[in-house]
Automatic annotation (TrEMBL):
Pfam families: Epimerase. Residues 3-213 form the NAD-dependent epimerase/dehydratase domain. It comes from Amnibacterium soli. This is SDR family oxidoreductase. InterPro entries: Epimerase_deHydtase (IPR001509), NAD(P)-bd_dom_sf (IPR036291), NAD(P)-dependent_oxidoreduct (IPR051783).
Length: 296
């Protein structure tokens, strides 16, 4: 298949591109800079110069492809949801009635179930003001109503590995600044996790096998207690761990401090069975036992 990917040169996008190419697919990656274009070319992907503001370009790229994977997110805090929602709506409109797979990145925040989140769970987040601009339900509702072959890629809050610049890297930086690795309360709330190589493999398999109207849980570990994450960061930096309340965590860490207090455990048994996916990369604590996150 010819697969068009937004965010193809990013952390998860690069792993997805490599996995798709290894499985014999052709990848066309969106690039908005020369550096992104050069990285995609090194990976072996074709390049299409466009970005999330170029709705006509996104529509054309979707119509020319056999499948679309939407991983990009415009980090514009003056417009936190509008641009991404417009891009998803563009893909929905272009792909409805074509039977082409459309996979979009989502997450696990917002659920308060008292148990690990399952693929069948749905959160009532709709409209531009909802979390992530309501894009997961925008796509899944369209799949239910029109037969659009759309699936949501719910990524674990930490997609880890050497070179990670996401939540775990931020917590390491925050620990350096605070002189201690922080966790909220008793630290028993857990984050699911997945190694970046396994994430790329899961997305590639989802392009081939995911059904419309479903959620794919890109989750290798159901839940790692945040206290254990803090303890691993403390060992790596030679610092103590410290419990803080939610207010202090949010004050010190902003949005990530808010997420740090959430329970984001999730199952992936359905995903593994449907995709034939068996994660094999290092665990989060194994990655935190190396110096990958702690080099100056």
């Amino acid at each position: 298949m010819r697969v068009f990917i937004t965010g193809a040169s990013g952390w998860i996008g690069s792993a997805t591109t490599a996995s798709l190419l290894a499985r014999g697919h052709e990848v066309v990656g969106a690039a908005r800079s020369d550096a992104s274009a050069a990285k995609l070319e090194r990976l072996g992907a074709a390049v299409r110069r466009t970005d999330l503001d170029d709705l006509a370009g996104l529509r054309a790229a979707a119509l020319e492809a056999d499948a679309v994977v939407h991983l990009a997110n415009k980090h514009d805090f003056s417009d936190p949801t509008g641009t991404n929602r417009a891009a998803v709506q563009t893909f929905v409109d272009a792909l409805t009635g074509t039977d082409k797979p459309f996979l979009l990145a989502s997450g696990l925040a917002g659920y308060r179930l008292g148990r690990p989140i399952a693929e069948t769970d749905r959160i009532d987040a709709r409209g531009p003001e909802a979390m992530r601009g309501g894009t997961e339900n925008l796509a899944l509702d369209a799949a239910a109503g029109t037969g659009l072959r759309a699936a949501s890629l719910r990524f674990a809050p930490t997609v880890h590995g050497a070179g990670d610049h996401g939540f775990i890297a931020f917590l390491v930086q925050a620990a350096r600044q605070a002189g201690a690795a922080l966790f909220v309360g008793d630290g028993e709330n857990a984050w699911s996790a997945v190694h970046v190589s396994d994430a790329g493999d899961a997305v590639a398999r989802a392009v081939e096998r995911a059904h419309g109207g479903t959620a794919v849980h890109v989750v290798a570990e159901q839940g790692v207690p945040t206290r254990e994450i803090a303890e691993a960061i403390g060992r790596g930096l030679g610092l103590p761990t410290r419990s803080v309340d939610q207010e202090e965590a949010t004050r010190r860490l902003g949005f990530i401090g808010h997420v740090l207090g959430m329970d984001l455990a999730a199952t992936s048994e359905v995903t593994r069975g449907e995709l034939g996916w068996t994660p094999s990369g290092p665990t989060l604590l194994e990655d935190l036992a190396t110096d990958a996150y702690f080099r100056a």
